[in-house]
Amino acid sequence: MLGTEPQIKAAFVKTGQLKLVFAPVLNHGYPSEQSHQAVECAAEQGKFWQFHDVLFEHQEKLWTSSDIQSDLKNLAAESGLNATAFNSCLDEQRYAALIQQQNEVRLRAGIRGQPVFDINGTIFFGGQTFETYQQTIEAAMPK
Known about the structure:
This protein has helices at 5-13, 30-43, 48-57, 59-63, 68-78, 83-92, 96-108, 130-140, and strands at residues 116-119, 122-125. By secondary structure, the protein is mostly helical.
């Protein structure tokens, strides 16, 4: 998705035609839980997607981290987030219940892997080309 995401945002999100919704997938246990909470903490500062991209860029390190909370806090500070607010949010585990609830919705829907994209009921498993997304999005738009 990171390859096509900028194109999708430029063509559809910025024009108000599409809303991207990110749902957590907790397939990597504790590192997944903490990373998803971290991005929600970044969202409090209006930086959800920016920090989402930072975490994707560093995911290999995060999955093998011996101290993921410290690593997430360092990435947040390096990314220009308000460290005090971010650290407090992560320390409180403010979004733990929400992340678990969202993951349960995914599991009940039978989604076991990622990426998965639902465009008005058309489900895509795995990354697709921008053209594939574009055709599906345009076909789903009201005429």
